[in-house]
Design brief:
With about 375 residues, this protein is an alpha+beta fold. It has seven helices and 14 strands.
Length: about 375
């Protein structure tokens, strides 16, 4: 029986609200109107964010008691009492995630986190700062054929308050990403819940997350689709977006738009027709079908047009296959990802937008969201 589905598609809007920091930068006695922070102040804000985000990253790295640059000359983030407590809990949750990853046969031997300030506005004794983080984690060679690294690009908004003496206290650091938390982000907040419209749509069967899975290799050459081209496209544009397509970050998320681009690069043909009919799939430069950008609609198109079949176990996914997640188990899919690498030992690695991510192991997704519902599609 075809189950009732949710509409419109929901692509997760996941946020994290945690804490930290301080640096000498700005006096509360300065002008009270909003102004752009000067270079020295912006650099100070970047160091504050770098301290917090680097500590989070290092909590995942094997045998790391501290982090590089945490010596006497390093900038340490000053936290309000409550937010310091929240950040301590966040770091503990990341250490627990590291333990779950180890149980799945994954570990990291090194990490590099870099932070840049995109915009910083100061109003009286308060500041709002937009930063981007680029983090590279190095996989430990436990099985022998893991990729070299996984890379993450994330965005945060910091709020800070000027304290006596001109020091800054970081009062919050909130993720601005639409998709699942990065592997170095702590606990995810609740995702948006979409109301059931009472209609029925083709959906598919949830996949088991038991590891290891019975192998189900796919023929990667000689067929109608070029799976290597799909993976190549995704790995080229995971961070450097293709200007030929519009972005949907902040408008529900760019994840399904991104996998649609990669599938088209590998040979998927458009199906013209009205944009709201999920049986159609197309992009024409100024408009697109709902199935091109919506996680649920993409699944309905894919299954109704027999472009793909469901896999019994998510770990059976191979190059060019798609994994989708219903994070809060409300029956509406929230996120879409493409497998761009698979180890000989059966671990798929996923590349996706929102959050911009390169070769993140499926194990790390499941370690972050062990109670989510997963779907795997053999394309």
């Amino acid at each position: 029986m075809i189950p009732k589905r949710f509409r419109p598609a929901a692509i997760a809007a996941l946020t994290v609200a945690l804490a930290s920091g301080s640096m000498l930068a700005y006096s509360a006695n300065a002008e009270t109107g909003p102004r752009e922070a000067d270079r020295a102040t912006a650099d100070a804000f970047a160091r504050i964010a770098d301290d917090v985000l680097s500590q989070r990253t290092q909590a995942l790295v094997e045998d790391q008691a501290g982090r590089p640059g945490s010596g006497p000359g390093a900038a340490k983030a000053r936290m309000s009492a409550q937010l310091k407590k929240d950040e301590d809990a966040a770091l503990q949750s990341l250490r627990s995630r590291k333990t779950r990853l180890a149980e799945l046969g994954e570990a990291y031997t090194g990490a590099d986190t870099r932070v840049a300030v995109e915009k910083a506005t100061v109003t009286g004794g308060k500041a709002v700062v937009q930063v981007t983080e680029q983090t590279t984690l190095t996989y430990k060679k436990l099985r022998g054929d893991e990729p070299a690294t996984t890379d993450i690009g994330t965005r945060y908004e910091l709020t800070l308050t000027s304290k006596r003496g001109g020091a800054w206290e970081l009062t919050s650091i909130k993720s601005q990403n639409d998709g699942p938390v990065a592997v170095n982000e702590p606990v995810a907040a609740k995702v948006n819940v979409v109301k059931d419209d009472g209609k029925q749509y083709p959906d598919g069967t949830p996949a088991s997350t038991k590891y290891p899975a019975t192998p189900k290799p796919k023929a990667k050459t000689g067929g109608a689709y070029d799976y290597a081209a799909m993976a190549k496209y995704a790995e080229k544009h995971w961070r450097n977006y293709n200007p030929a397509y519009r972005k949907f970050n902040g408008a529900g998320g760019d994840c399904t738009n991104f996998i649609s681009q990669a599938l088209k690069a590998g040979g998927w043909k458009s199906v013209p027709g009205t944009s709201t009919d999920y049986r159609n799939w197309w992009y024409d430069g100024t408009r697109q079908s709902d199935s091109w950008v919506g996680a649920n609609e993409w699944a309905w198109f894919t299954l109704s047009n027999q472009r793909a079949t469901n896999l019994a176990n998510v770990y059976q996914a191979d190059i060019g296959d798609i994994v989708q997640v219903d994070f809060n188990r409300d029956g509406s899919k929230d996120h879409s990802m493409m497998v761009t690498y698979r180890s000989g030992n059966g671990m798929p690695y996923l590349t996706y937008h929102s959050t911009n991510t390169y070769r993140k192991s499926l194990a790390s997704i499941i370690a972050s969201y062990p109670n989510a519902v997963y779907f795997a599609y053999r394309t």
